[in-house]
Structures are given as structure tokens and as C-alpha cells.
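Morning - fe (ii) ion inputs below, output right after.
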Amino acid sequence: MIIQLLLLIFNLYGILCIPQQLHMAQGQDPSSMIISWISKSKSESGLVYGLELSKLDLVPFDTTVTQYNFKYPGMQDYTSGFIFHANLTNLNPNTKYFFKCGDIESKYTVSSEFKTLPLTNNNPNYNLNFPLVFGVIGDIGQTPDSINTLAHLYKDKLVQMILHAGDLSYANCNQTEWDTTSNIKLDIS
Ligand SMILES: [Fe+2]
């Protein structure tokens, strides 16, 4: 019984330590990406990346961490987790990268991957020989229908980038709704 209780506490601790709300956003051009996540711990969270999952030997150009408080009449006071933004630069165009973030020295990390966009015709090394395919969504909210729509979009392997037109959360001043919506959208972010 005591062992089971200890295992439960250990598992709950692990769940708290795993990074949440992982998001990726395109940087200014195909050579940069911004990876964001939220952690309960400020000091132990980081990111490593590379061209192979087994060789994550690169570190971001810089990583920022912020936290904010939110008060609104009639709502419970809210304090966010620690919000990390890692700026990955000098990426090769049209290339798949792997990364993991969180407590790098432990098992409390999240791994994912992304593929950079091809070069555009604004670049002197013009190499765009096929169209870019965008998925466009909006007013997605966080209902079961939202999850189905996102899953449908995620399965479409032709889509290279997703544009969200807005109304992501319908949080209505309840900041915890931003946390839940950000975790729902993990698959496409
Ligand atoms: Fe809307």
C-alpha cells in the first residue's frame, strides 16, 4: 500500500514536470522557428535539437522565459506557468528537425519534429519550385468538434503550414481556458 502510494505521488510529480502546451511558430523566414512550451519549473527547462532524433546536438540562439498574473472581477486570480520561447536560427530550408524540451537531463521532456519551409523567391538562392499548401481555420474553440476538425487537418500531409484566423479559445477572461485550449491544439502547433 505504501509502495503504491509512493508510486502514485511519483507519477503525479512526473505529470507536473512534463512540459505543457508545446507550440511551434514560423520565424521571419525558413531559417528560423520559435518553439514555445510551459513548465512548472523555471530553472530546469531547456531545449535541444538536431537533424536526427538520436543526435540532438544543437541549442537555440536564445531562450526567454516569462510568467504573468491575471486578475478580473468575478474571476479567480490566475498565475501562469513559466512560458518558454526558444529561438532556433540558421536552419536549413526544406529540412526536418527533431527536438526535445523540458528537463533535458531527466525523462520529463516532450519530443517533436518540424520541417522548415522551402526558400521563397525573395531569397537570392531562389529554390521554390512547387506551391506552398496552407490549411486555414478559425473560430476553432475547444469542443469535441474542435478536436475532430484539428485531427482532420493534422492528417492531411499536403498541408505545410496552418493559418489560424482567430478566436482560438473563447476563454471569456478565464485564463485556465487558454491552458486547456493550448493543450488541445498540441497536434497542429
Ligand atoms: Fe468567433
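Note: The CA atoms of residues 29 and 86 lie 16 Å apart.

O.
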